[in-house]
Amino acid sequence: MFDKETLAVIFVGLMGLSVLMYAILDGYDLGVGMLLPLDNQQHADIMVASIGPFWDANETWLVLAIGLLLIAFPAAHSLTLKALYLPATFMLIGLILRGVAFDFRAKASFGHRPTWDKLFKLGSLFAALTQGYMLGMYVNGFDTSLSGYLFAMLSAIGVSCAYCFIGATWLVMKTEGELQLKSIKTAKRTLVIAFIGIATVSATNLLFNPDIYAKWFTFPNILFLMPIPIVCGALFALAFMLLKRLQKNPHTGAGFPFLLCILIFTLSFAGLGFSFFPYIVPNQLTIWQAVAAPEALNFLLYGAIVVVPTILMYTAYSYRVFWGKVQELRYY
Amino acid sequence: MLDTLLLSRIQFATNISFHILFPTITIALCWFLLFFKIRFDQTADPIWMRAYRFWVKIFALTFALGVVSGITMSFQFGTNWPGFMEKVGNVAGPLLGYEVLTAFFLEATFLGIMLFGSQRVPQKVHTLATAIVALGTTMSAFWILSLNSWMHTPTGFEMRDGVVIPTDWLAIIFNPSFPYRFFHVLLASAITASFLIAGISAYRLLHGDNKRAPKMTLKVALTAAMILTPVQAFVGDLHGLNTLEHQPQKIAAMEGVWETEKGAPLLLFAIPDEETRSNHFEIGIPNMASLILTHDADGEIKGLNEFVGKHPPVKPVFYSFRVMVGLGMLLLLVAWVTRLTLYKNNELPNWMLKVLVTLSFSGWVATLAGWYVTEIGRQPYIVSGVLTVKEAATDIAPENVAISLALYVIVYLGLLYAYLHTIFVMARRAVEIEEISDQLNEQEQENEEKSILLNSAVTKSTVTNSLDTNLDKKVENDHV
């Protein structure tokens, strides 16, 4: 039996893992959705095929993340989501449209396919924008002044571009020929915007929150924190160079940009997480204030210790089964 | 302007009613798919794989709708019902958590392999993936029904500072109404899926599909329905007895009993009136309700007047119950008549096929009616005796709830239309696909000769399987 203080840390860690997994996994498939071409049926089919076996499980990480927030920090769940009620609703509508359009486009009569493709793209865009917007509102402490909204808009664009970037690198890894070359170009372009986005949001965040500024720029912290943005920047540069090289020879190392992208996401998330810890709702509620009863969390933890590694294992298995370049995706 | 409480209730009812349609199909449909797959592994008859492939597409579509409509629920617990999590979150939370951890990931991950992996993994692994998804859907039902049942019959907790603290998890999970509700819902799912398979198969036959697959699936589905409908009547009765023990006010509303009485009649029809606290236009069978509920013609049934202010609204419970039972009886009758006719004549007359097409989604109606009975029957509580719905409600602005509700209604209606439309489009498309068995025999022979010549160790099933796939590629242009 763990005590309340330890459980709060364990569960915020588990939740952080889920959010990160979600951002990476659903990030790339939302990105692919946003990049879907409406004028090239063949490319659209391959792109959708590349995420076909995965999107369902990817989205489940969101359910886990929101579920853990609800279970472990119920007060934070209702405080956060009540403040973000409408954007959360819009995000859900986006995710609904994206998810079902995926299935309908393959099964509806062919005449309706362009409509479902549009809904797929629109749903993905909607979900990404609202997620970014909610992140922005959360980070600025639900600031409803003009500057608060502007910051949230900026965050919406930043997150969407980051998703497009990881989606494009996913396609660089999973596709061949013309589509791969096209994706390399898209990846380069979105990389630049994503970099500017992340840098701006991080800088603005520091200016907005003097506490966080102090946290980052005091003595022992600065030593192990400064590497985060520096390494992140270096990874962006490395990814850019790799993409340039891939334009000439797309056959070797096509998976590296995606890998770098995962690292960038992880580092950015770690930086964000450190900035706010131990707050679960910035400047309002700490994890220890919001945590649920140990009787409940211990019971869930026993299961989670066994189940979470199992989930990671069979997720890896599923990626191994569908390893390599996308083939025509069919229901067998 | 409607208030936030009412809007939240309408929104939650809309969301959960829309959501439950899809799991109701997928929970059992996946076990049907596993049956098709195992039969294919055993017999190597391509017809089973053909059935699998047609129904796995419908499964995928239904599953996707279930997933996306389910996500909205996990948000609404916090946004619209914060009081629920504040008061009983320590019980509800872990049960929901276990559902996500042990069911959702399992289903979602292996679904990918089940749908797209049969050429990438050995057949045995593919069958296993189907079994895992079936297990996952059932696990999901297990946890959510455990929580739902706990809300009806809460046990295994104590109150500390006005908050529910779990003391005995086994007592919580296996609370008194859980086993009954779990099997009642699983059977409802099985019957819903049976009539869906039967209805769509009948639709294909009516549209001139003379292949073996729809005949075979019709037979399987009606056999299942014939066995399961009487079992459901029996389990439903047990569930009713359990409800009488723990929630007598719900039974009183279901039966329209106002005053406690001995030898209560079974009301076939009535118009309950909460103003006068009596029924109008009663048509009933004397002593029957007492007989069914207490197994004694003069048994006592507690009336609603013993629970004034603490019993559910009578009309919706009373009517929903009659819709559920009436429809259940109809399905039982139809299942037996059609299955016996099929046994005798080896085919069904057109009118029977038409009846089955009409009943394709009848399981939905019965299931929803059943849910309304049990859920409205718990009112005014959200957790029996612990927390009322009103106490759990949110304080967000009604305008916001109105906007989200309107959006959900529009999107859900559109999706429901698209879903039904697409299923029939898929059925019609399946009619046009050529029969595979004749061509297959030719190629099969050819291949068998080849394998004899090459003296290869290729088993018959893998040969037929790959052949079947090749043929499929020719006749069916159905990329994702």
UniProtKB/TrEMBL annotation, chain A:
The protein's name in its UniProt record: Cytochrome BD ubiquinol oxidase subunit II
Subcellular location: Cell membrane
GO cellular component, one term: cytochrome complex
Single GO MF descriptor: oxidoreductase activity, acting on diphenols and related substances as donors, oxygen as acceptor
Domain of life: Bacteria
Family label: Belongs to the cytochrome ubiquinol oxidase subunit 2 family.
Gene source species: Psychrosphaera saromensis
Membrane topology: Multi-pass membrane protein
Broad class of where this protein is predominantly found: membrane
Alphabetical GO biological process terms: aerobic electron transport chain
Organism placement in taxonomy: Bacteria, Pseudomonadati, Pseudomonadota, Gammaproteobacteria, Alteromonadales
Keywords: Cell membrane, Membrane, Transmembrane, Transmembrane helix
Membrane-spanning ranges: 6-25, 83-101, 122-142, 148-171, 191-210, 222-243, 255-279, 299-317
InterPro entries membership: Cyt-d_oxidase_su2
